[in-house]
Amino acid sequence: MEIADLKRLARFDPERLAKIPIFQSERMFFDLYALLPGQAQKVHAHEGSDKVYYVLEGEVVVRVGEEEALLAPGMAVLARAGEPHGVRNESASPALLLVVMAPRP
Fold it and tell me: To 5 degrees, how large is the angle CA 76–CA 9–CA 19?
């Protein structure tokens, strides 16, 4: 059995968004994304994979396709395969997200 203590694994990088791998398999990945204020993941797409962003702490602006939304803790968004997506922290506080993608690109 694999168990991860997400709070203990979380870390922030003053230079860029931190992507922290938690679980990976041939079929999916499960990561933490840690964003300090002003940090972002540029808009991009994955042709054969769906991605879910779930906010644990803080607030982020998520873009999927042509739409943007502010997500707070407990909120999640789905970016289906091929849809452009990205996330940015426009708040004054750090943000921590769970990110799952399947199938793994």
Answer: 60
